[in-house]
Amino acid sequence: MKSFNFTNTLRAIGLSMAIVAGFSQQVLAHVSVTDTTPEDNAMLMASPENVSLTFSKASRVAKLTMKNSQGEKLETDFSPTKEAVVNFTLPISKLNPDTYTVDVTFFGEDGHKMKHSFSFMVH
Question: 103: helix, coil or strand?
């Protein structure tokens, strides 16, 4: 029968904590969308003049699409950003009353590809 080795147990716990801390810092290093205009699930009385995103760190916006409630893509003047930005704004045409979804794909400076979606309604 083996006896309990307290030192080896402490080493295993310490190693586990170091691994978890390492992964946590990698996850925290990723960029996220911190704010959108319109806000997610906003109910607007008029069509917005643009859609905007604020990122937690500078990012390159690779793709942005807008769809109505029937899933039809709306025409926009989107073009991918060449430089990383913290704030991104896209002017849009006047929208008819409907629910709209904005899907964005972006890259943080660490090169990781991320996606974000938000929706809003125009009355």
Answer: strand
Locate 105 and state its tokens: 């794909």
Reduce the DSSP state of residue 97 to 3 states and report it. Answer: coil
Measured distance CA(121)–CA(115) in Å, rounded: 21
Query: Would you give per-residue pLDDT tens digits along the chain (123 residues)?
Result: 556 666 666 676 665 665 655 544 444 568 999 999 999 999 999 999 999 999 999 999 999 999 999 999 999 999 999 999 999 999 999 999 999 999 999 999 889 999 999 999 999
Whole-prediction pTM: 0.77
Beta bridge partners of 114: 106
The amino acid present at 121, given as its one-letter code, is M
